[in-house]
Design goal:
The protein has 243 residues and is mainly alpha-helical. 59% of the residues lie in helices and 0% in strands. α1 packs across α4, α6 runs parallel beside α10 and α10 packs antiparallel against α11. The C terminus is likely disordered.
């Protein structure tokens, strides 16, 4: 070794990459933290939503969480941003379906979301956003109304295409559908209630009961292999028998 060469055998040359230095970034840290954030918020609400509870449930270190989200408001907002993506279906896929089947698919998808640990968090957010307008209210404004607007838009389109009766209110029908789904989710006690076949039956019952009287004959059409809603509509509209 020459006198001017200061690099020792065990030293790393400047700029050389050492894959062993530092721990590789775990791609599951963020999903685990965000899922845990929703679970904690759904169980404890805003007053009980702490970074400590999230780290304990997610098994993600506090330093990893604080590197990504400086406070609990940012963490919960990020978690609900993820919910907004999961809550909606791809409209391009829905548009291929008949009107009432689009409603059934959307309802079934939301019933499933409500049956997961995300469900109580969504419901709690809808309850608490009035009480905490500067924190929870801001999170609500950027997530939940979009899902309601999407449902209202679908119903308004149905009325314009004469698939709903002209006096039908897209806003109030959307509120009634969403409210029915929330109340149903609050009453589910068994995991089997959220199975695929049960969700399909539950979605059918909710759509037929809430919208049955407002669907026109054209609006009630389904694919041939599906149980039609039209007979139920005809039965409910039939005049009462004379005594």
């Amino acid at each position: 070794m020459s006198q001017g060469d200061t690099t020792t055998a065990g030293a790393r040359a400047p700029g050389a990459h050492d894959a062993a230095v530092g721990r590789p970034r775990d791609p599951l840290v963020e999903p685990r933290a965000l899922s845990a954030a929703l679970d904690v918020y759904g169980r404890h609400g805003w007053s009980g939503f702490t970074m400590g509870r999230v780290t304990a449930l997610s098994r993600v270190g506090k330093s990893s969480i604080y590197r990504r989200w400086p406070g609990r408001e940012e963490l919960l907002a990020a978690a609900f941003d993820r919910v907004a993506v999961l809550f909606e279906l791809d409209d391009r896929q829905l548009r291929r379906l008949p009107f009432v089947e689009r409603l059934l698919t959307m309802t079934q998808h939301r019933l499933y979301t409500y049956s997961t640990p995300t469900g109580p968090a969504i419901i709690r957010l809808q309850v608490e956003h009035h009480a905490e307008p500067d924190t929870v209210g801001k999170i609500w404004n950027r997530t939940i109304p979009q899902s309601l607007v999407g449902l209202q838009r679908l119903l308004a389109e149905g009325r314009e295409r004469q698939l709903l009766r002209p006096e039908a209110s897209p806003k109030y029908l959307a509120d009634a559908l969403e409210g029915s789904m929330v109340m149903h989710a609050l009453g589910v006690h068994s995991p089997t209630d959220a199975s695929g076949s049960n969700l399909e039956a539950q979605a059918y019952a909710i759509v037929s009961q809430v919208l049955g009287l407002w669907l026109t004959q054209d609006g009630s059409q389904l694919r041939p292999e599906m149980v039609p809603i039209a007979p139920l509509i005809d039965t409910r509209r039939a005049p009462l028998p004379e005594e």
